[in-house]
Amino acid sequence: MGKTFIIDDREIAFDGSKTVLQIARENDIYIPSLCYHPKLGPASKCRVCVVEVEGIRALQTACTLMPKEGMKVNTSSERVIDARRMVVNLLLANGNHNCLSCEVNGACELQEAAYRLGIEIPAFVVEEREERDESGVFIMRDPGKCIQCGRCIEGCNRLVVNEVLDFGYRGGHTKVICDGDLPMGQSSCVQCGECVQLCPVGALIEKKGMGKARTWETKKVRTTCPYCGVGCQLELHVKGDQIIRVTGVEDAQPNQGHLCVKGRFGYDFIYSKDRLTTPLIREKDGFREAGWDEALDLVAGKFKQIIKESGPDAIAGVSCARSINEDSYNMQKLFRGVIGTNNIDHCART
Amino acid sequence: MKKNYQERVENIIRKYPDARSAVLPVMQLIQKESGNNLSASGIDEAARTVGMSRSGIFGIATYYTMFNTRPVGAYHLQVDTCVPGFLHGADGIVKHLSEKLGIAVGETTKDGMFTLSTVQDLASCATGPVIQVNDRYFENMTVEKADKLIESLKKGKEPENDTSMNVVSECGILLNDRTKKDCRTIGFYKKNGGYRALKKALAMKPADIVNEVKEAGIRGRGGAGFPAGMKWSFLPQDDPRPVYLICNADEGEPGTFKDRQIMEFNPHLLIEGIAISAHAIQAAKSFIYIRGEFSWIADILETAIEEAKKDGCLSHTEIVVHRGGGSYVCGDETAQIESLEGKRGNPRVKPPFPANFGLYGCPTVVNNVETLSNVPYVITHGAEAYKKIGVTNNTGPKIFGVSGHVNRPGVYEYPLGTKLKVILDAAGGVKGKLKGVIVGGLSVPILTPAEANDLSLDYDSCQKAGTALGSGGIMVINDTVSIPELALRTIEFYQHESCGQCVPCREGSLVIMKKLKNLVDGRGTKEDIDLVLHLCANIRGLTLCPTGEAFSMPIQAMVAKYRPEFEALVK
């Protein structure tokens, strides 16, 4: 064993690349945290991840604390629990932290911290916060549930670089703003939903799933986004046959949790009655349903006929932007090598 | 927008290594050119100019109090009602103005002439009550003077400001003779021996200057009392990055108004101190971060810098005066660095410390105005002579600002270690019966008359007495004052100034304020008193920056030491 330190009487090895919070999580030691997110790094703002370090007077935030050889960390002393309890109680004191009908009940990090700290009823209630902002097409903002952790802002500015969200005002009036404090629906927000995915509480919610299922009722189905060739990894949260919400898979390539507005919210087409389920062959004024063999034979036959009558350059192909690179490569191979023409293009070429 | 706007913007941007640092001055310029308002189009203009997002600019505009994102009248009357103002009767001025103008606080008269606001601490503690009108101060206000001010403003004229207060300099090192008309000029300064220390210092090796300052034991006069020479010696050696010196002139600790005495009347002393210190730490660029409300003092400094430049005193370092936007927390060194980089003034997580990773990620030293103003004396007379002023481990002169219930409020330059009694006597003695005294600015625990009786005003003695010397801003409180009301006034300040970044400060100050308000309004319970003490005990040491301590310690002391007064409010 190389360098080691102690968390709650357990000797744990470290290499200097990770914080105490990261190491604790890897070792199933519970330390609550609200502003830290692995993708965004430590912020040291919520102060709920504090731990006691032998020989250091003040409590230390585990999200910023680097272990040292022989360091002794206590994650559950009375002092630590008192401090955490006060912080969570302070967050609960302001706003509208009512779990009864909250969409993230069961997945809320504030609720989890309160549960672990045994806070049944908030110790002090002082004030209600602002009204909900329902102006966004897909996203509902509830400032009453916001804990000002700043994850959404970091995500908007640093990860997706849309630069719509920021902190406005100061002190107890601090709040997340869109542009010059406009309703989200009137701002430059493109509704990519990165902020929703990063929110640890119920302050940013997908409108489409509201009231449809509790978090524990949905089954998570991993799939690949069908919209374009990037191949973003999705998790569909499904209840029965219905998609309740879509999230990006945080630890998967290529998207690391990011999604665009289409991938995250544009899934209604799967329910469309107009969706094609078989090939259609045009006959007279309409279409008739056909099998794949019949349809492909027909297309191949027509291609051969055109080549015979007018030469291969009478045919052109346009590859679809939804297809992956490999499919587009095969498409051009088919046109150049089999059909014998260079008339091949891609709809996303601009 | 005026014609030469673009040229002026370019001149501003040119002062900074990074264009984003120009965001506050550019916003200030836009606001000034747009009738003292920063509208949505002004926000967009600023965003375009410095290449930031609209929300980023709006976030900055609403963080700093001096930007008017909501329209204000032609004259924005802001009355300082923070603790020193409160002690000097500011509430009466607010009430009178409200009645006279027929508007409540926060409202604008129908003709668009006047907006009435209250404001938290303008650093005019001995000359309170003070009204800030747009970017000018009117001090020593009375109801009669306020009437005259309004009548004069209605005619479009600004009357003279009455800055009179008691000024005593026992040491004669930091304060000069301000009664002389030319006291701010380089001619006056040099006639009295000025810039000889700089000449001597420039012939010295930087390391020798650092050692001399270390040996002299100058302790930081901003409040923390950390030895300046030691701070300098934390800078990394042989580092390829540029070194920056920032002079912290963001004087905003309630009860404190000492730095402005140096800057306004003896600006060349500070400039010489910066010039020597910049040589000592090899900083080619220095900034004076001055609170935005002191705009006329910033002008005085810029004039003095021009004089010094012309005189050839600043060939080794460039000094840029940077105006803040209205924020107490920006007096914290890492918040100040963030602010100077053109961001909201949120303190940084430490480590890394500024010596290693400060302004633009470069080695940086942040020193208070008074600290830097002590440097020329050390260089001229040597560390040994300097150490003869004051007491062991607490050396040199200190400017004490005395406000509140004394007969002659003002500034008093005495050696560190002087008895509080001596300073209070110099200030004409306590008006009425003493109830308590706060010796180091609002963020230190209050002392009862018994605790204060034999107190020596130095860092170590104050610590031993359970308080801190802090900035040396002494507020004297007589028995006409209700301590619960004083506590409420205190927490209102910190709640207003909290940057809002970390939970214990943002939410804790709010909850304490609500509980104290309930008590003062007669709606409180005994549990509220205990809850306030519980919160104070837990918030201390839990916040990202020292602001949590700055309110939890004084509030805790007020409640614990004067508890019967709080209990008497419970029905």
Keywords:
heterodimer, A: 350 residues, alpha+beta, Ubiquitin-like (UB roll), N-terminal domain of TfIIb, five-stranded mixed beta sheet, three-stranded antiparallel beta sheet, B: 571 residues, alpha/beta, Arc Repressor Mutant, subunit A, Glutaredoxin, Rossmann fold, 5 domains, 17 strands
Helices and strands in order, then pairings?
The complex is a heterodimer of chains A (350) and B (571).
Chain A: E1 4-7, E2 10-13, H1 20-26, E3 50-53, E4 60-61, E5 72-74, H2 78-93, H3 109-116, E6 139-141, H4 151-159, E7 165-168, E8 175-178, H5 194-198, E9 204-206, E10 219-224, E11 233-239, E12 242-248, H6 261-265, E13 280-283, E14 286-289, H7 292-310, E15 317-319, H8 325-339, E16 344-346
Parallel strand pairs in A: 1-5, 15-16
Antiparallel strand pairs in A: 1-2, 3-4, 3-5, 6-9, 7-8, 10-11, 11-12, 13-14
Chain B: H1 5-14, H2 23-33, H3 40-50, H4 54-63, E1 75-80, H5 83-87, H6 90-101, E2 114-119, E3 131-133, E4 136-138, H7 143-154, E5 166-169, H8 186-191, H9 196-202, H10 206-216, H11 228-233, E6 243-249, H12 259-265, H13 267-281, E7 283-290, H14 295-310, E8 318-323, H15 333-340, E9 364-368, H16 369-387, E10 390-391, E11 394-395, E12 397-404, E13 410-415, E14 418-419, H17 420-426, E15 434-438, H18 449-452, E16 456-457, H19 459-464, E17 473-478, H20 483-497, H21 503-520, H22 526-539, H23 547-561, H24 563-567
Parallel strand pairs in B: 1-2, 5-13, 6-7, 6-9, 7-8, 12-17
Antiparallel strand pairs in B: 1-3, 3-4, 10-11, 12-13, 14-16, 15-17
Helix pairs in contact in B: 2-3, 3-4, 9-13, 9-16, 10-13, 10-16, 12-13, 13-16, 20-21, 20-23, 21-22, 22-23
Report what the structure shows.
The complex is a heterodimer of chains A (350) and B (571). Chain A is of the alpha+beta class. Among the domains of chain A are: 4-76, Ubiquitin-like (UB roll), CATH 3.10.20; 213-275, ADC-like domains (N-terminal domain of TfIIb); 280-346, no CATH class. Helix content of chain A is 24%, strand content 19%. A 5-stranded mixed β-sheet of chain A has the order 2-1-5-3-4, sandwiched between helices. Chain B folds into 5 domains: 5-63, Arc Repressor Mutant, subunit A (Orthogonal Bundle), CATH 1.10.10; 75-154, Glutaredoxin; 170-387, 3-Layer(aba) Sandwich (Rossmann fold); 390-478, Ubiquitin-like (UB roll) (Roll); 483-567, de novo design (two linked rop proteins). Chain B contains 24 helices and 17 strands. In chain B, strand 7 (283-290), helix 14 (295-310) and strand 8 (318-323) form a beta-alpha-beta unit. In chain B, helix 13 packs across helix 16. The longest helix of chain B is centred in the middle third of the chain and has 19 residues, at 369-387. Chain B is globular and about 70 Å long. Chain B starts with a helix and ends with a helix. The mean pLDDT of chain B is 96.
